[in-house]
Amino acid sequence: MRIARWSARLLCFDYSVVYRPGSQNYTADCLSRLPLPMSADIASDTEPEMVAQISATLASLPVVEFDTACANCPELSALRAQIQKGWPATIKALNDTLVPYYKLKDELSTKDNYILRGSRLIAPLSLRHSLIALAHESHQGIVRTKQRLRDLYWWPGIDAQVHAAISSCVLCQSNDKTARTRPAPLHPVPLPDGPWRKLGLDIVGPFETATPDCRFAITLTDYYSKWPELAFSRTATTEDVVHFLSSVFSRHGDPENIVTDNGTQFTSSAFASFLQSRGISHSKTSVYYPAANGAIERFHRALRSCIQSAIQQSAPWKQTVTNWLQVYRATPHATTATSPYELLYGRKMRTKLNILPLPPCTSTVDEFAQDTVLKSKTRCSATLTQNVVHRYLLFVRMNRGPVDCCKQSCRKGTRQHAKTALVQCAASRQEKGA
Ligand SMILES: [Zn+2]
Questions:
Q1: Tens digits of per-residue pLDDT, 294-307?
Q2: H helices of 215-314, where?
Q3: What is the pLDDT at residue 51?
Q4: Which of 248, 386, 415, 417 has its CA at 20 to 30 Å from residue 332's CA atom?
Q5: Which SS3 state, helix, strand or coil, does residue 114 take?
Q6: Ligand 1 is a single-atom ion; what residues have CB below 5 A from it?
Q7: Distance 54 CA to ligand 1 centre (A)
Q8: DSSP 8-state secondary structure symbol assigned to residue 219
Q9: In the Cβ-directed half-sphere of 229, how many Cα atoms lie within 13 Å?
């Protein structure tokens, strides 16, 4: 933190750092350190308070910027030319910059200004640093940042660059996420048959340094997709938990089974009757072994790390955790190698990292929905005309006639529309009759 403070103070200077050995680094004598007497009329030369505002939220990359960077990148231009010309028989005939691409030559293709390795974009030199910063948003560890980035992009040396970037991230180093090793689970929990069937529920807190509305966090994790849900709360009563679950279930539906520890919120009769009313079974972990609810314990470690980052950045907890949750849901999980979002929704999440549009949905459900919308559109115009005529006729019958209607509180547009519709309808009926 001290180095971060120094670098913030020096931001306004253009300087270079030169190493000087201790033997040549003479300390100042006492006379040169002795302050001169200050007179009252001398303008204050105290250092102004420097505030370095570093934006905490990174903006996504505009498509135009990515497009231009791809077109102007010397490495990608050389690669594009090589792909169009065809690859030589041996690697020796290649330019040095293209050597890393030689063994992947069968996977490379071009599309407009872009070059793809399979379905992943090869990022231009000028934007690689920005893409790493975007993937490292919310300060996930090295493995998760790499997974997130490699899902969409590739370039030679991507892993080493991500490693170097996170090694120099002050926040990650102060949290030291990489230092701890975790023992492997003795009895891995088998995956349920599908998403949102078995959920782990727990309460974290109280957080002593939190604002009153963030003292507790109620958390829920899907055992299959690893999708997390979270709500901060002032208290952690059964009512709070039931309110949280009702809100989440309104979006995702009811699960079949919920796993909790033996907290009083979960052993109360109110909680039991809430679950019973929705037909949800309840499993409790052993009193002496709360870590048995492994899926949620793992999520809690990541959550604590996120909260620690928010404290260090003096950022609001709720906003920081909300942003982090999106990144967490979009990142492939270590257990399933797929993102929670994809396992729950069956499609990929669009995030700030995406440049190319997502592929169209092709499931039978999507095709059915698109087909239904198309049919309803063609039906819509005929139904609209009939509705307008019906309303107009009703209006005329209730009043004495169209002339008197004008004096009533009837909207002109509606009446005229109805008249036109009536004429059109009559004409079409005559045509049909003829
Ligand atoms: Zn970081």
A1: 667 778 888 888 88
A2: 238-252, 264-267, 269-277, 294-312
A3: 44
A4: 248
A5: strand
A6: 139, 169, 171-172
A7: 14
A8: E
A9: 18
Distance 137 CA to ligand 1 centre (A): 7
Q: Rounded to whole angstroms, how far apart are CA atoms 434 and 432? A: 5
Residue with tokens 């009252």: 40
Delineate the domains of the chain, giving CATH numbers in brackets: 63-175 (1.10.340.70), 198-345 (3.30.420.10), 364-433 (no CATH)
Contact, 266 vs 201, CB < 8 A? Answer: yes
For the stretch 124-169, pLDDT in tens is 998 899 899 888 888 888 888 998 898 889 999 999 999 988 888 8
Of 227, 170, 173, 169, the residue nearest 198 (C-alpha): 227
How many degrees, rounded to 5, is the angle at CA 162 between CA 76 and CA 318? 120
How long, in residues, is the chain?
434
Distance between the two ends of the chain, CA-based, in angstroms? Answer: 87
Of the candidates 350, 319, 3, 299, the residue with the CA atom closest to the CA atom of residue 138: 319
By the 8 A CB rule, do 273 and 280 touch? no
Q: How far is the CA of 244 from the centre of ligand 1 (A)?
A: 31
Give the distance (Å) from ligand 1 centre to CA of residue 159.
15
Four-CA torsion 314, 315, 316, 318, nearest 10 degrees: -130
Q: How far is 106 from 104, CA to CA, in rounded Å?
A: 6
How many whole angstroms from 311 Cα to the centroid of ligand 1? 14
The predicted model gives 197-223 an average pLDDT of 88
Q: Describe the strand order of the beta sheet including 153-154 as a list of residue ranges.
A: 108-111, 114-117, 120-122, 153-154
Q: Which of 121, 126, 100 is nearest to 111 (CA)?
A: 121
